[in-house]
């Protein structure tokens, strides 16, 4: 294993405000999406354009037409292809995407087509990897397909629970493909993962709740996810990102 592997801190953002905070706090790159609370979906065009205007670090765009599984209909797959081409024209540095077959294996036919469609872009396989049948087979297939990065929690609810699988994935990757550790990442987790499995690339959101500016509040109506207040906004916490950056940059 390459102990001198360059470190990376990617921050996942779903607003212009969060993007600005994350860059100022020391993020190396951003994953731009919408709807982080449901795992993220493809961002809006105006959202991405505004982030591109104010951020000069690398922007990787999540291409996910809906929440839920990663078995896509023909119409959804066409949307994915068209969105890749659109965001490339708008100035994206990379795309974050993943397709599975119904049997749980990586859909190598679709992934090959997307890799070709995204020529010239950084290509990240997102956490579809974490719900695939065999992560070690999927890693080898990803290398063959020309995938640059795998974003993964080690097929667990969070990266600490998936630590042993992540350790194996890092060893198998052996510098051929980047293993980007995600889910539950903060400064303390980075410190532990650096020491115990020598991970060097991390993905986090560092979200905090910001109270709505609304003075009048009708609490009787819920617009979406039950149990979530309509008067709470999730934003990147700059202090969380700065702490993570300090730990990751320390020897």
UniProtKB/TrEMBL annotation:
GO cellular component terms, A-Z: cytoplasm
HAMAP family: CutC
Primary residence: cytoplasm
Entry keyword annotation includes Cytoplasm: yes
Localization annotation: Cytoplasm
Pfam families: CutC
PANTHER family in the record: COPPER HOMEOSTASIS PROTEIN CUTC (PTHR12598), COPPER HOMEOSTASIS PROTEIN CUTC HOMOLOG (PTHR12598:SF0)
Name assigned to this protein: PF03932 family protein CutC
């Amino acid at each position: 294993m390459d102990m001198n592997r360059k470190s990376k801190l990617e921050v996942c953002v779903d607003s212009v405000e969060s993007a600005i905070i994350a860059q100022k706090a020391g993020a190396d790159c951003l994953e731009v999406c919408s709807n982080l609370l449901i795992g993220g979906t493809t961002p809006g065009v105006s959202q991405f354009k505004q982030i591109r205007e104010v951020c000069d670090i690398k922007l990787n765009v999540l291409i996910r037409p809906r929440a839920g599984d990663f078995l896509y209909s023909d119409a959804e797959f066409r949307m994915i292809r068209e969105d890749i081409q659109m965001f490339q024209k708008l100035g994206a540095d990379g795309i974050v995407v993943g397709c599975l077959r119904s049997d749980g294996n990586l859909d190598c036919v679709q992934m090959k087509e997307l890799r070709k469609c995204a020529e010239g872009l950084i290509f990240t396989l997102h956490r579809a990897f974490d719900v695939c049948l065999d992560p070690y087979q999927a890693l080898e297939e990803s290398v063959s397909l020309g995938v640059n990065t795998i974003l993964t929690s080690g097929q667990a609810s969070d990266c600490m629970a998936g630590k042993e699988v992540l350790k194996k994935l890092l060893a198998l990757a052996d510098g051929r493909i980047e293993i980007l550790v995600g889910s539950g990442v903060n400064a303390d987790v980075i410190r532990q993962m650096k020491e115990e499995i020598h991970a060097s690339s991390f993905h986090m959101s560092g979200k905090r709740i910001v109270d709505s500016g609304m003075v009048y509040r009708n609490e009787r109506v819920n617009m979406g996810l039950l149990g979530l207040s309509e008067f709470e906004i999730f934003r990147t916490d700059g202090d969380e990102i700065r702490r993570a950056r300090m730990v990751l940059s320390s020897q």
